[in-house]
Structure formats: C-alpha cells, structure tokens
Amino acid sequence: MAVPVLKMDKQVDDAMGWFPTTVSKELLLEARRKRIIGGIGSSSNFPTPGRTENHPEFISCIKNKAVEHCENGEKALMESQFSKAVTCFAKAINLQPKQTQLYVRQAEANLQMCDFQSAAVSYRQACLLEPQAEAFHTRLAFIYYLQGQCLYDKGMFLEGLESFVKAAELKPSCRSYKMRSLACLTAMGRYTDCVRLVSNCLETDSQTADLFTLRARLHKQLGQVSLCYHDLRSALALSPNCPVANALLGQLQEASMRARQQAISWATAGRIPDALSKITTALEHCPETGQHYLFRGILHRRLKNFSASIEDLVLAVELSEAGGQRVGPSGHTQEDQREVQEEAQAQLVLTYNDFAVQCFSRGFYAEAITLLNKAIQEQKQESGLYINRGDCFFKQEEWGFALADYQQAEEISPDDQVIWVRLAVVHNTLGTQCYQDQKYREAADRFSEAIKYSPGVSQYYENRAKAHSRVPNVEGARWDAINTLILDHTDNQVASLLLSLFPGYSVSDVLSSRMARTVRAQLMDSIQTRRQPVSSVLRLNRARTIASPPFHG
C-alpha cells in the first residue's frame, strides 16, 4: 500500500531555502518518510514495560518534568492565571499521581475560579492519599460550605443543603455548617426536618439557650405550642434574661389566659364540651399551670369523664405543690398555688366518690372500694365516703367491714339518720345470720341494735320476737309481736305468732289490752327520740324476714 508523502508547510520550505544542503529535497523527504514509517511499532521508540521506565535516568526525567510543570503552575498562580495553573498541575499529576500537594495546589487554583466542584474533587483525592491529614478534611468541608452558600444565594436550596450536609459530615463539631443546613430546610418549609436537626445538635453538642429558643420557634411554626413552651422554659433555665425566649413565652401566656377566659364563659353558659376544648387550648400554651388542670378536671367530672378528671386533678395538685417553692409560670403567688392545691384535692375526693358511685351502679363493687380508699386517704373526715364504702362492702356481703365503715361514719356525724338506717340494716343482717346458725341470743342482741337505730321498722321487732321465742323469752317475744302489729297490722306471720303467745285471745283483744297500750307508748317515745316519723320508716326487703318458729314455752 502506498504511503502518502507528507506535505511540508511554507515555513519548512522557507527554512530549507535558508539553509541549503548538498542533499536534494527529494532525498530528504524520502528519508523523513522512512523514519516515520519505521518508528511506528518500533520497540526502540516504545519500550516494553519493566525495562526503560525503571531506569534511573527515566525516573529522574519524569520527576524533573513534573517539577517543571509544578513550577509553571505556581508561577501562573502568582500571576492570577488560574486556568493555566490548573492545566500545569494536571500535567504534573499525570506524571506524579501520588503527590498529594499537586492535588492541593490544583484545588486551590480551581477555588480561585470558584470552581467548587473541581476543587472538592482534588481535595477528596488528597484526603484519600493522606487520610490522617486533618487539614485536608477541614479545607474540603470549607469548600463544600462555600459551594452550599453560593447555591443558597441562587435560591437552589436543595442543592445547597446537600453541600452543607457534606460539610457537616466532614466536620461534625462545626455548628455553623449545621445551621446553614437548617437555613436551607427552613427556606424549603421543611420544619419537621429542622426540628430533627436542632434536636440532634442539642443531643450531641453543648446545650445553649439559643438552640432551645430556635427549636421553640420551630415548634410554634408547626403548631406544637406545648413543645414550644417546654423549650422556652429550658432556654430560660440556662439564660433567665434571654429577651427572645421571654418575649415568646409572654405571647404563649397571653394566649393561654385568653383561652381560659373563653372557657369560663362557655362553662357558665352550659357549653361544657366547648369549654373543655378551650381550656385544653389554654393548657397547650401553658402546660405547667395548675389552675388550668384544676378547671379542666372539674369539666371532665361534670361530663363524667372520671379517669381524665382524676389525671388532671392529680397534675393540678403536683404542680401547685411544686409552685409552692417558687412563683408559678403564669405569675401566680405561693398563696394562689396553695389555694389551687386545696381546691384540687377537694375536687379529687369528689371525683373519686362520683367514679365509685358509677362503678357501684354497674355492679363493680371492688373497683368502687378501691376508688373510695383513695378518696378516704385524701379526706379522712368525710362521713359520706365511709357510708359509700360500707354500702360496697354490704353488697359484697362483707358485713363486718360494712359495719366498721358505718360506725366510723357515725363517729364523724353522730346525728345523721342516713347512717342510723344503715347501721340498723347491717345489724339486722348479722342478726339473721346468727338466727340461721341457731345463735338465738346473739341474734336477739343484733336485732336490738337494729331497733335502737331504727325503732320504726316492724321487721326488726318481728325478727327479734322470733329470736326471743327461741331463747325462750316469752315476755320479750310478746312485746315484740305487739310492736310489729302496731307498725304493720297486715303482717299475718306475726299475727299467728301473737296468737301462739297469747293462747285463747284474739289479735284485737291483745291490741286493745293494757299491755298493748304500754307497748305503743314506749314505741312512740323511741321513735320520737330518734326523730324518725313512722311515715318515712324504711321497709326492708321481705327476703330478710326470718321464718316464724313454733312457740316454745
């Protein structure tokens, strides 16, 4: 195949004209052609690996050439020819790819041209070559920071965020890099991510009032006012005079008080659910205010949300106790805190009792007893609590415990007829058990106690008459039978017993006798003493009636 003859340009022709030679032009061109053809693929021009490149002269030549490129690069840097400097350092790197400083100088040249991406690539290579060099990592982080700031200024917040994140990963201790990431997130409206980032700073770095205040503002932006409040309190604990935190806390307190006033207005108008919603808003703005918890607890109690009421009232007590050592967050004095505590404790007792009443009505007697135990622990001088707990024990047929509670109530309120009625009932019940166990004398004593508390109940006299007839105590049985018929002339069982106690006499004969008149007078005196009119006398369930025994006599 014919090889085309290379054409010499005009400069070459001219040069050949200036320097004449004895060799003809054609011979020179032919020699040049043969040299080029012979050079292609020649092992003399392209030595095989492992032979020439390891030669000291070759290594020295490469090194010298790299130094020359590096010096040219430094000179270009001094002359502000940054593009040329980058090229020179790139040539030097091609010859000496493991020289760290070459990458560093190339990165600095790129940095002068604001080519942050190329500068970062060069510094990353330097970090790979010398991973222990802290200065390289620091410089690379700074380059990412500059790149991120330029992107942020251009409105490219997502790209800027990526650069700031890289900078923060390289230098986690540098808070300014994290704050710039926060600025990008804020600009994009990603407040949840902002909160997460600030929380990470608070966990890993030293806690400052500024960081807590910053997170508080983010929480407020997200509508999380309760978390905002707690962050502000933390900020003020570190710096009590922080103006931003104090101003923001004042705004929350004002909003809280406005919501409370609206809640009071709606509660007064009977709009309890609306009032509950408003006082909850007040609590979200100031979650350490005992007055708010007290008010909400009362509202929950009115709505019969007893568990929620108890929870709020307990918090009101705890906050007021803590507030007794300092002025409350809303400016309440220690005296105000004590008043809140006393009222919350009183409301707590009422709530325990109301909850217990609800449980009692549904047959949950054990649960009602537990609640009343808590109420009594808070208020030991309230007879109604002992009465209610005694009723629960009575329903569980725990007669002894019921009697003990009724007696305790009587000690507190000795003139309460409600307590007398219950004492009479439980004594009658215990007397019935004794009678069934054939303990007739003890039964009679129990029935006597029942009569002492409720002398107007015919059933107690009937039961005692039967117990007396078993002792036997004929005289006592006669008196009780007459009392029974005076109080309830329709009681046929006692009429039969009366005839057996007065053989040969009719019921009318017995009731018109002198003995009956004496019994009636004593009965009226007993009833009058207890101030218990016959018309309002409790009539016990007939299931408690004792079967009439045959007369023993």
Automatic annotation (TrEMBL):
UniProt TPR repeat ranges: 66-99, 141-174, 383-416, 424-457
Superkingdom classification of source: Eukaryota
Signal peptide feature range: none
Keyword tRNA processing part of the UniProt annotation: no
PROSITE patterns the record matches: TPR
UniProt xrefs under InterPro entries: TPR-like_helical_dom_sf, TPR_rpt
Alphabetical UniProt keywords: TPR repeat
PANTHER family assigned to the protein according to its UniProt record, in alphabetical order: TETRATRICOPEPTIDE REPEAT PROTEIN 16 (PTHR45153:SF1)
Protein name, UniProt field: Tetratricopeptide repeat domain 16
Taxonomic classification: Eukaryota, Metazoa, Chordata, Craniata, Vertebrata
